[in-house]
Amino acid sequence: MGSKNKLKRFNENKTFHNVVEPTRDEVLHNSLGYKGEWGRKFFKNENPIVLELGCGKGEYTVGLAKQYPDKNFIGIDIKGARFWRGAKTAIEDEISNVGFIRTQIELIDYIFEEKEIDEIWITFPDPQIKYKRTKHRLTNPEFLQRYKKILKSDGIVHLKTDSEFMHGYTLGLLQGAGHEICYSNHNVYHQEGSPEVVTSIQTFYEKQYLEQNKPITYIRFKIT
Q1: DSSP assignment, residue 112?
Q2: Is the pTM here over 0.70, yes or no?
């Protein structure tokens, strides 16, 4: 994407009512005024809140919002030029239960109050295979503790990935730590019983993976 196109998208994001782009200082000092109040202040309702971490273009955030109008969905990504597409689609299609936050995922426990979130979706994250990058792996123990802090006691985490490494790493970690694995599938499009919510929405990159015959894996779990 050219720099002019990126700049255009950044500027357009600033005009979108469904996009929040806080500074790091605003996040760390709770200057936004939304922490603990996302339902009431941002969405103007008390419906359950679901996050998509590393939302990319926002296909899953918007797709889920269409399927579940009685829930609120927030896509989080540091790259605003990407989720611009999802935010614009939500506005054009008048989908009111969608929001996007441009921030680092490491800061989510500063953005949301304890027990404020009902579900978390992690869709096709970078597996960070190199050892030095494990601290950025979105299902490492530190991230799981952040999720546990903001999730309700019965909150659910969904991991959908094309990386067999990420799938296996996460399963092993969950089992070793005694977390509750509700469902696991190493090839959702070639096994019966796959949840419809997992197969009914496909991201741009997921479609490319499927064309390459890469298996798409899925885990649903609770952090105990």
Answers
A1: S
A2: yes
CA dist 85 and 196 (Å) reads 24
Question: How many separate helices (H) and strands (E) can be counted in the chain?
Answer: 9, 8
Q: Domain of residue 72: give its range.
A: 3-222
Burial class (CB in 10 A: 0-12, 13-18, 19+), 61: buried
User: What would the pLDDT profile of 80-113 be if each residue is shown by its tens digit?
Assistant: 999 999 999 999 999 999 999 999 999 999 999 9
Residues contacting residue 160 through CB under 8 Å, at least 6 positions apart: 121, 122, 123, 124, 188, 198, 216, 217, 218
List active site positions: 126
Q: What angle do CA 61, 63, 68 make, to 5 degrees?
A: 90
Number of domains in the chain: 1
The CATH number for 14's domain is 3.40.50.150
